[in-house]
Amino acid sequence: MKNLLPILICLFMFSCKEQKEAKTNETATEITTDTPEQWLTFEGSDKDAKHIVLISGDEEYRSEESMPQLAKILSKHHGFNCTVLFAQDPANPGVIDANYVKNIPGLEALDSADLMIISTRFRALPDDQMKHIDDYLMAGKPVIGLRTATHAFNFKDEDVSNYKHYGNSYKGDIVEWEGGFGQLVLGEKWVSHHGHHKHQSTKGFVTDAGKTTGITNSIADGDVWASADVYEVRLPMSGDAQPIIYGKVMNRKGEFDENDIFYGMRPTDDEVAKTNHAGKDVSAPLMPVAWTRTYQIPGGKKGKAFTSTAFSAVDFTIEGTRRLVVNAVYWAMDLTVPAETNVELVGSYNPTTYEFRKDEYWDQKQLKVADFK
Fold it and tell me: Does the global pTM surpass 0.85?
């Protein structure tokens, strides 16, 4: 019996070690197989609150920064349920890559959405993702397009897609879709920079028609400002498009500073530009930088659309620019626009300059969706 005791002790210790290793391996497996967050949700005041889906995904104006902040404002101050989506390489889920144009996970959230806010640029999404957007528009639900949403999609000739007609350059057999999503839904596609990019800013002036919609409640001339320059649109605008804000091209008074988030421009700049850098007259006629319209895609119901090209992540630091978008949210969902919407920033908001960034930047940055909670 005495000879068996050491053997039994060894067997007991070996068994404990195996159990411990098995538990450790199980925990490690759980950690490595957890799926990282690929989109964000912000809950409103109650479960029956309106649901807003905000779609980021542009290489230049940092919608991956502005859309989470907008969602926080709409959720905390206005009680809406919000879902924010981001561009990501499917090989690296949960990590934002604004340069990856072929994947924005979570678009199925549109199936239960009351409003789509889109701020993408030249995306070529797969059919299973595009279908959610197409179904949403078929239902005639409201749309808000910001800045590069006028050229939200673009497909190359070699791309295999049933949704090539959404592309900014589309000139195919479906004549109604010429000019793509921007032209048919928002009322304008990409044309050109009207002001001098990074050197001339946008100062907004309220139209008489804008005052009747509620979208410009508590917004005076000059309150809407953007360091992002005025985009050109073709006049007269198509369909029943109604300008809400006209944008004056403003000269920069200070020195150009590439390290400044506004590149040296300021809302206080008061010199109206006569020409841009190419010598083009930009003083008249003024370009609409925010407008409303009715859209209807072939086979679909009619819906409401609001577009503002006076927008970037850094411009969202401007109270009047934020208020314009928040007011438009109420208008788009047929809700009474408050006399003065609460647009106070929620938490820290430190947007970075608008610019194009190389693929290596995103590889090294490893910016996670969860970072914007």
Answer: yes
